[in-house]
Amino acid sequence: MGPMLQNVLRKTILFLYRVFAIFVLYAVLFGVLAYICVMGLYAVNTSWITPIVLSPSDDKSLNLTEWVLTTQITVDNLVLDVKRQNDSAAEMKIHRATLLGLEPQLEIAIERESQHNMMAGRQLTTLEQQKLADNARTRASLNQVIELEGNTKRELAAGLITKKDAAAQLLSVNQAQNVYTDSRINVVLLKDNLLQKNTIDTRALDVLDKKAALRSQITQLGIAIAMAEKQSQTESVQIGRSKSAIMTMTQTPYFIVKSQGRTATFAFVPYDNKGEIAIGARVYDCYLKVLGCRDVGAIKQVFSSEEHSAHPMFRTDLRGFLVQLNLENQESAKSKTLFVSRPLLF
Predict the structure, then answer these.
(1) Of 84, 156, 219, 317, which has the maximum CB count within 10 A?
(2) Cα gap 85→81, rounded to integer Å
């Protein structure tokens, strides 16, 4: 019995070994086949997405929030500067309009004064000639008076006239001399007036200088107004661009998470899978990546900004976008992949 029992035991062990080897072989073949099928499914399937949980403390959320705040401060400063430039331009336009109104009045005044000086110059020239003739006649009369003064002194010395009469005659002589002196002074003054009326004197130059200064001020105001308006337009364009950028950034998942102050679940969608994506589309979580799929939520929002991620199976770099998920079972956020439609019929 001993040898027969040993023989049966060896055959049993050999049979069990063969059965185990066959089982292991088929298991390996099944595993390889299943892996190939899963890889093939992910290669052709266009409904898978990769869940992502974002937190307000993520670096991207913090950096984006800081950028938005900084840009908003810049926009506020630009808005104030645009208002200041516009107010300054409006005030300079009023000032320039006032100066433009003064310019023709100054031109009229200069022309009127020039015509007056021309007419007065001709009249003063005639009066000067007449005054010189009068002075010549006065001088001849004065010579006679001076001769009378000598005769009066001799007669007084001889006692022919009284001192009172002599004093009266001498007083008349002095008065005549004073009149002649005043006439000579008037001639000098008349020449001075002629110089002012017939030539461009310092007062006329002052008026011309004021005219040039007025024209220069008007030109400078025009340049300043143009520069203020140009700067205002440039800053307005920059404000529009910055506001557009802020609006775009505030519509990103990272800013939404930071503004809400709590974590949220999103999913990365490759561009090849975007045909399956729509707001309200149901999301499925599957066991063993492809089997036993169950409905776990829906797509809440779709974002347009581009994102990069690795393929969940092939680990290649992919380009795509993010969608926000409204999951009924938050445990599904820990899954490696989710599906927008069932990958298989069950």
Answers:
(1) 156
(2) 6
Integer Cα distance of 323 and 252 in angstroms: 10
Residue with tokens 């092939």: 314
- Parse the chain into domains and list their residue ranges: 1-42, 43-70+253-339, 78-239
Question: For the chain, what is the total number of helices (H) and then of strands (E)?
Answer: 5, 7
CA distances from 55 to 60, 89, 262 (A): 10, 48, 6
What kind of architecture, by CATH, is found in domain 78-239? Orthogonal Bundle (1.10)
CA 289 to CA 267: how far, in whole Å?
16
Q: In angstroms, rounded to a whole number, what is the distance separating the alpha carbons of residues 136 and 338?
A: 127
Give CA–CA dist 262/260, Å, rounded.
6
Are β-strands 317-327 and 291-302 bridged in parallel, bridged antiparallel, or unpaired? antiparallel
Longest dimension (CA), the chain: 210
Tell me the two tokens of residue 279: 């707001």
User: Average pLDDT per run of 10 along the chain, which is 346 residues long?
Assistant: 68 77 77 64 77 87 86 91 91 86 72 65 62 63 62 64 61 62 62 58 65 83 90 91 86 85 90 88 82 86 88 83 89 88 60
